[in-house]
Structures are given as C-alpha cells and as structure tokens.
Amino acid sequence: MARKKKTARKTLPADIGKVLKRLHYPLDVIMLCVRWYVAYSLSLRNLEEMMAERGIGVDHSTVHRWVIKLVPLFEKAFRRRKRPVGRSWRVDEAYVKVKGQWKFLYRAADKAGNTVDFLLRAHRDKAAAHRYFKKAIDQNGEPETITVDKSGANLAALEALNTGRPTPIKIRQNKYLNNIVEQDHRAIKRIIRPMMGFKDFRCARIILSGIEIAHMIRKGQMHDDGVAATAADQFYSLAM
C-alpha cells in the first residue's frame, strides 16, 4: 500500500502533493473518504465506521481535516475544467444552519439546470447579493438575463451592477421561473442533513464547496477530455 501511495503522488500537482505529504494515509483512502463525504448523505462518524469495516483505522476528525485541507484545492482544479453555462440564470438562496443560526447559500442555475455558481454569506442583503453576482460573473461570464424572486436586496444589487454597463443585464422578478434552482437546492440539502448543522462558518463554506463540486460533476458539468468516465473517476482526477 505504501509503495502505491508513493507512486501515485509523483503525478500530483505541487499544491495537492504538498498537502497530502503531511496527511500520512494512502492517497486512495483519503480521496475515497473526501468524495464520499461530499457526494453522499453520510456523517463523519458514518465514514469512520465504514473505514473500520475495511480494516482502516481513521478517526472522524481526521476525515474532517482531510476535507478542509483538500476541497479548496479541488475547487480550484474543477473551475479550470468546468463547462460553460447558459446566459439565462435563475438565482435563489438556500438556508444553511451554522452555529445554530441560519446563513444564506446563494446559488444560481441556468435554464438547463446547470449550476452557475454558489456563495455562502452570513446575511441576506444588498451587499451579500452584490458579492455573489460579482463572483458569478467573474467566474462564468456575463449573462443576458437574471431571474430573481421578489427580494428587494437582489434587485438593488443587480441595478447597482448594471450602472454604467453599455448593455445592462436584463432583470426578471418572477418567483415561478425560479423553480429550476429551487428544486436543485434539494440535492445540496440532502447531503448536509446528516451533518446536523455546521459549527464554523469557514468550514461550512469549504464543505459546501465540495458538495457543490460533486453535484456539478454528477450533472456532467466537468470536461472529461472526451474519455468516458464515472462521476467518481472525474472527482479523483481533480487530484491528478
């Protein structure tokens, strides 16, 4: 097993290899635990028990540390390979509990249901919406149309973004047109339910990022270089 770990790490990008060098477990075990945690409705203690059944002793806190250290690097790798999205976006916020308080996960999907982008914010106001829209546009290009609900904060943020633009983004306020993204929230909420709420905002942001990556890969939003691959294979390729 140790020989396999050493061989696999020769092909790793420098940033990921540097982190893995300090984790002292075989690469395949680390990647399996991280993917299972962000892709399925499992708690950290579930994973601890599942690994024990396979003869691998790993504490649930160790799995959590792996997720926090590696997911930001995987997100960076994923964004380089993310497929373009459409130019008609539906934006909505999902509620996420952090330290016993509700926080707001801003999310958008295009009209085909592809995830545009996401951002966890402590408040639901104009500043939070503006930060989200700016990030989404920087990462995915400028849309033609953005559909939001009746939130005044979202409308105010979009109007501020449109100020000075030669071609303003068309804004639609229609609750029913947002069914696509509202339905898509369910896939994220299903994964976080066993986690029983997050204890730390930074950790919540990172873990939600991993969940979003796994969800987008499952929806076929990652370039696979023309090679047929499972969602698991595509996730693991982020470390290669």
Describe this structure in words.
With 240 residues, this protein is of the alpha/beta class. The chain folds into two domains: 2-81 and 222-237; 88-198, Nucleotidyltransferase, domain 5 (2-Layer Sandwich), CATH 3.30.420.10. Helices cover 52% and strands 15% of the residues. The chain contains ten helices and five strands; from the N terminus they run αααααβββαβαβααα. The protein has helices at residues 2-9, 14-20, 27-39, 44-53, 60-81, 126-140, 152-162, 179-192, 201-218, 231-237; strands at residues 88-98, 101-110, 115-121, 145-148, 170-173. Strands 3-2-1-4-5 form a five-stranded mixed β-sheet, sandwiched between helices. A hairpin with a 4-residue loop joins strand 2 (101-110) and strand 3. Helix 3 packs across helix 5 (60-81) and helix 5 (60-81) crosses helix 9. The two termini are 18 Å apart. The relative contact order is 0.16. Residues 1-10 have low confidence and may be disordered.
In a nutshell, what does this entry contain?
With 240 residues, the protein is an alpha/beta fold. Helices cover 52% and strands 15% of the residues.
